[in-house]
Amino acid sequence: MARDSTGYTIGFAVAVCVICGIGVAGAAVALGPRQAENKVLDQQKQVLLVAGLMKPGQQATPEEVTALFTKNIRREVITLKTGAEDKAIKAETFDQRRAQKDPATSTTAPENAAKVFRLPNNALVYHVLKDGKTDTLILPIEGYGLWSVLYGYLAVDKDANTIKGITFYAHAETPGLGGEVDNPKWKAPWPGARSMTTRASPPSASSRAAPATPRPTPTTSTACPAPPSPATASAT
């Protein structure tokens, strides 16, 4: 077949597409397990950072991160309506964001400023242990920012009303305003702030995000406050 013919051109393009497609699919399958491991490792790092067990920029091997997480953190899946532990669900494999998208495992959220449209029936919370007892709770939070949904963690003291830290592990905000949620200066005023309310209610949104209801007491706040002093930029 002549190289300048239409058939040759189409055949060559098809062959290149098939070969490239097989290569990409093979790479995706081969790297899938490693990507899953890295995702788990990153979330463990974020929990350790917001708990104050790791410092920003601290270098640690995967083994060190896992060991520190295992020693100090206990995961627990709770039922949002009651705050009680759901022992039928394994915390190690529970995917809260997937559960939130599934109508069978979520409900329609009430109108809220964070533009959260669905609430999962269950939420994954983390207990930071000290002498075998819960010293800090790490709660999942989310809310719509300037360009995307922000997912993060809020650290709350054992009194379930004093904030100890905040971090976001996934968002598509751009530098300049929305991206300021990653700025240490924006995060600095949060520790020591108090929750906006202490009455029991379903998870709701504030100007920042909406954390899941923690388990320890039914009177825990379900809204995030603004930082105690003016921040450089808002997340929403």
Give the helices and strands, then pairings:
Elements (H helix, E strand, L loop, with lengths): L5 H45 L11 H11 E7 L16 H6 L4 E3 L9 E3 L1 E9 L2 E12 L4 E9 L5 E8 L13 H4 L49
Antiparallel strand pairs: 1-4, 2-3, 4-5, 5-6, 6-7
Task: Explain the overall architecture.
The protein has 236 residues and is α+β, with helices and mostly antiparallel strands. It is built from 4 helices and 7 strands, in the order H-H-E-H-E-E-E-E-E-E-H. Helix 1 crosses helix 2. The termini are far apart.
Helix count?
4
> Kindly, what is the distance between the CA atoms of the first and last residues, rounded to a whole number of angstroms?
60 Å
Q: Tell me the β content.
A: 15-25%
For the largest sheet, list the strands in their spatial order: 1-4-5-6-7
Radius of gyration: 22 Å
Q: What brief labels describe this structure?
A:
single chain; alpha+beta; two-stranded antiparallel sheet; 4 helices; 28% helix
Give a quick rundown of the structure.
The protein is α+β, with helices and mostly antiparallel strands and 236 residues long.
